[in-house]
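Give me structure tokens for this 622-residue protein.
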Amino acid sequence: MLHDPRFRIPGLKGVCAAVLPPEAGGPDPGVLRIALEQYVAQFPVPSRHAARAGVMGLNAFSVATTGKTLLRHGPEEREQVLHRLTTRPEGRHALEGLKALVLLVAGGERYADELLARWQAVEPVRPDADLDVTPAAWWPSRSSCDVVVIGSCAGGAVAARTLARAGLDVVILEEGRRFTVDEIRTTRPVQRFADLYRDAGTTVALGTPPIALPIGRGVGGTTLVNSGTCYRTPEAVLLRWRDDAGLKLADPSAFAPYLDDAWDTLSVAPVPLDVMGCNGKLCLQGAERLGWACGPLDHNGAPCQGCCQSAIGCPVNAKYGVHLNALPQACAASARIVSEARVLRVTHEAGRATGVVARRLDGSTVVIQAPRVVVAAGAAETVTLLRRSGLGGHPQLGHNLAIHPAAGVMGRFDDPVVAWDGVLQSAGVDEFHESEGILVEATATPPGMGSIGLPGIGRDLVAQLDTADHVAGLGAMIGDEPAGRVYGSKRAIIRYELTARDGARVVRAVEVMGRILFAAGAREVYPGVPGHPVVRTVEELADALASANPKGLHLAAFHPTGTAGAGADEERYPVDPEGRLRGVDGVWVADACILPTCPEVNPQISIMALALAVADGMVTAG
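Here you go.
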């Protein structure tokens, strides 16, 4: 991507020099500034303005307190300015956001050439699938079919496959574009991150704390960029959906064949030890020494090459997302995919669906007439689409959002770990899953891009980065209460407030992860607790967590669910127990929206199984 001077951010070079001082071995701040501006230029306008305001605010603080901008200071003075800023909560949050942005780009660029050379030298384990994909620019302005499926994600893909195999003329509409393995393996990591995620990965659940909520966009949806970790829906969750929500489809005996179908579609198998990597093995070692239940995670990446790049697209097509199975199977049954088409609204007359109107990249529209519409656009986008369509009247639509919030902890070891050499998400600790709702998974990130969690700033941070290959990482997810809401119709605005109960479990999860790392031999642990960036014993960890405020931690989430829950109670659930949207005929919902509560595990299998059940019901009903 060429650098566009219109997106220049005044003062950014000084911020780069402050966070990663070149005097201590950090990257050239002028070169890093350009790379950052190229990345930020791809943000939506509000996020772009926020990044710009953060940089300008930091420099304004420097001028107000010292009389000089950051760039005019030496490394010691720059660090002093930043440390003064962190004494204020709002300043600390702003600095952490900018630090994360700088480290994401700097880390991705640091290893980019090595990654590209290494994986371009390895042949893909499977070719790209044979998909019938037509960009919206080439699709007729008016057409018709039997069923339109909105979204090519986990739910939309398998629903389309079932309907097409039943002999129906199916058109799948996808807002994103198709990505080939050749494109993924030749594109720099940060650009892949920007391309493969909605809004260049800047989606955030607003609240205290704000929670990063990256959402994939492309043919295959978030399965392009998820970890590949697969869990069958826990029976206790299914019973809750069946008994509390009245979702008959979730009866464990009836649901089991759909779980089997999803499992087989993805060719799920345990992560092999020979590609797990040291990060996962340390997790297993620590948990076993504590006597805690653990084991390799089940994964849809066979034969996995351990490249640790699932989150930015697999460069060898080993991760078996729906773009490599369910979607080509649907196309083999005559389904067609229209890419780069944002659905503006579902059309309807006299209480019945009549089709959809979608927008091409050039702003022109595509009209597809169909008596049946399946909405599978995701927990946020499905809600906004239904509102734009005049179908958002149910009082609970957009409410009851669960996001499966996650915290991360790092540990430093004497011997090299090289966490990014192996499977991105490789081993799991189930000891506290049923009892406390805490699921721990050994989680690395693409090379260089996982440095966000390292403590420090300035010279200390550069020293941390220079030995990042000695750091292991764990992540823990909390089966949360539905504490969020999706607002808006043109753009999704997501709000989420961590409840006191879930906040306490996040703190408990940090303790659990810290203990695992210490048991595995870590000489220091980075819990991410303000005021306690580094702890060196279990006792220090306990002291740090004794007064920790969960709302001061850095959290992320990857599994939004529940915003159009399916259930028997017409007042509580916008979608009926068969997946039909209440208030209109001919519209079904078949994505994470309809899960009545957080599934408490990585949700891809649950979403696919429920979508299969909904689609089966559509076929049976005729």
